[in-house]
Write a structure and sequence with these properties.
It is built from seven helices and nine strands. By secondary structure, it is of the alpha+beta class.
Length: 267
């Protein structure tokens, strides 16, 4: 994963970082922190749980891995862990890097195909002012797509007017808005003798609230609980559908015959 993107200084303890393996020793591996241009060390005990017979079975030179920062010493030494990275953390970091690569490809296209100028020079003239306000360039681009940023905002960041205008147009053209998701756990039960059938029919009705613009996903989560996800292009539509679903349950599930509760996931 080649990136022009670089962060200043040192990572924080606990931070999840993208690394490239540089050298493998019998009891440790040296890696380059790709986003910082710093080197770190992974002790064999932090490679994988349990006994490791052959370190090269887990890490090899040039292999891209995702690590967790354990400690950053005053002399610049960085201790890392491979085994303490969860699957979700690994997936999220790889997704971040892919999105940043997409942002860089957009700038590359702007440089080579539209402005006919040097790509690296243009990248740094755009990325440097953006990274004073964002952790990643792609975060700025998504704010453009979501109409949270205007051309004038890019100019205020310090991007040259002629570049800001063409960049804004290209980002709008190349990046699709992220789907907005409202989700949570719906606890639903019926006190009726045929309670299972009652709940099934209620679920069918809840799913019928989906439209061509709003999708609804419901998955059983155990113990009379269901994971509900409402997905659309904007939160306003999500919230409107959620309100209709909860109003329906309020009207069609009398308190003496059943109960429900929706616990929103705020993440």
């Amino acid at each position: 994963m080649n990136l022009l993107y670089r962060r200043q200084g040192y990572p924080e303890e606990g931070e999840i970082v993208l690394c490239r393996v540089v050298k493998v020793n019998p009891h440790s591996a040296f890696v380059n922190l790709e986003e910082y241009d710093k080197q770190g060390l992974i002790h064999i005990s932090e490679i994988s749980p349990g006994r490791i017979r052959n370190l090269s079975a887990y890490v090899k030179p040039d292999k891209i891995i995702v690590c967790k920062v354990l400690r950053v010493y005053s002399n610049g030494h960085i201790d890392l862990s491979l085994r303490r990275v969860t699957k979700i953390q690994h997936r999220n970091k790889i997704e971040q890097i892919k999105q940043e690569q997409t942002a860089e490809k957009i700038i590359e296209y702007l440089a080579t195909q539209i402005l006919k100028t040097d790509y690296k020079e243009l990248y740094y003239s755009i990325a440097k002012p953006i990274l004073k306000h964002y952790d990643y360039v792609y975060e700025c681009f998504y704010d453009i797509v979501d109409d949270e940023l205007s051309v004038s905002d890019l100019k205020k960041f310090g991007i040259k007017p002629e570049i800001a205008e063409k960049l804004y147009e290209l980002v709008k053209e190349r990046i699709k808005p992220k789907k907005k998701v409202v989700k949570g756990i719906l606890k639903l039960m019926s006190f009726e003798p045929n309670g299972v059938e009652v709940v099934r029919k209620l679920m069918e009705k809840l799913l019928s609230f989906k439209t061509k613009d709003v999708d609804i996903l419901i998955k059983y989560a155990g113990s009379a609980s269901y994971l509900v996800e409402i997905i659309s292009d904007n939160y306003k539509d999500d919230e409107a559908v959620l309100s209709k679903m909860l109003e329906f349950l309020e009207k069609n599930l009398p308190r003496d015959k059943g109960a429900f509760e929706f616990v929103r996931d705020e993440k």
